[in-house]
What does this fold into?
Amino acid sequence: MSDFHLAPATRLDQVRYDIRGPLSLRARALEQDGVELLRLNIGNPARFDLHAPTALREAIAAHLHEIDAYGHELGLEPAREALVADAVARGIHGLDIEHVFIGNGVSELIDMSLRALLEPDDEVLLPSPDYPLWSAATRLNGGVPRYYDCPATRGHLPDAAEIEALITPRTRALVLINPNNPTGAVYPRALLQQLVALAERHDLLLLSDEIYDGITYDDAQFTPLAALTGAVPCLSFGGLSKLWRACGYRIGWLQLTGARAALRPLRDALQLLAALRLCANQMGQWAIPVALRLRGEIATLTTPGGRLHATRAALLAGVARSEFLDVVAPRGAIYAFPALRDGLLPDFNDQAFALDLLEHEHVLLTPGSGFNLTDSRHLRLTLLPEPALMVEVLARLEHALARHVEAATPRYAHG
It folds into this structure.
C-alpha cells in the first residue's frame, strides 16, 4: 500500500474557480497569522452587513413545523405558483408550475441543466469573461466551452455576428449572464432580440443567468430574456442569493419557456435528475412567495441614497482619479471590473499582481483571468462594502500599481 495513489479524475484538470481558489487559501493563512484583510473578492452580502429582509426569515420560521419531510422534486407548490405569477407580471407567458424547478441554489440547477443537455464534446457558447461556474459545469458534463468576447471597448457587451461565427454542428446552447458578473453590463433589449433570432436560426437552447435581475443603476433597464423568446426554448435562472441577500438559504429556480414539444425531453430529463437528488431544501423555499412580493425593495440600495449606489459612486470617482486604472461603469449586479490602462506594464500578470496586492496591501480581489478571460488586465471587486472601505481599497490598489510601474520604468545613468 505504500505506493497507493488516489488520482483525481482528469476532467478536473481544466476546471478552476479562482474566486475561492489559491488566493483565497493564502488569505486564510494570512488571517490565521493575525493579518487583517480587506476582502472584496466575493459577492456575499451578509459579510458586509447587508441581510435578507426580515419578512423572509419570518416566513421560514412560520413553516418550521412543515420542513421535516422530503418535498416534491420540482419544489414546493406554493413557491412555484408564486414564481409563475411573478413571471407573468414581468411579461413572461406560457409558464406553469410543471416547468418551474427549485434547486439548492442556481449553481445546482446550472449543473443539472448541462448534465441533461450535453453529449461528450457538445459545445456551449459562453461569454468571456464568464462566471466560472458555467465553464466548469460545461467541462464536468463532457461539453466544450466556446467563448465569445465581451470587451470593455464595447461596454462589455457581446456582438451577435461574432457569436454566430463561432457556431458549429456541435453547438447546443448559448449562455447569457445578464446583468453580468463580473462586468456589470446590462444587455439592451435590441441586443437580446438579436440573440434570440440567432438561437432560432441555429436551433440553439438559450440559457439565461439572471440571478442579478433587479440590481440595476441609473437608467439601466433589465429585460427578462424569456419575455422575448416566444417559441424558442429558453431556460432562465434566478434565486434569492443576491437580490434578496440570502446566499446561505441556497435557493434558486429554473423556468423553462418555449414550445412545449421541443422542451418536453429536456424537461423530463431535468425531473429525473431532480428526483435523484430527492428535493431542494424545504426551509428556504418558504421564503420565495414573500421575497417575490418584495421585488422592488432592492431600490433602497441601488438608487441615490442607497448603499450600493454610494459605493459604486465612490468606485467610479476613485478610478477617475487613478493614474493607472480605467473602468466601464457597471450598470447592474454588484461588481466592478476595472482594468490596467493600455500602455502600462505590457507584461502584466493579473494573478501575480493579485497575490502581490494580497501580500503587501492586504487586499483580496479576484483577477480577471479567473473569469476565463485571456491576457487579462482586469480585476474584479464587489460593490458591497461601505463607500469609505471602497475608497481605502482603491488607495491601496493605486499604491500597489505605482510600485509595479516604478519598478518597470527604465532608469538611465547620467555621467
Notes: The mean pLDDT is 94. Residues 369 and 376 are 5 Å apart (CA to CA). The two ends are 69 Å apart (CA to CA). DSSP finds 14 helices and 14 strands in the chain.
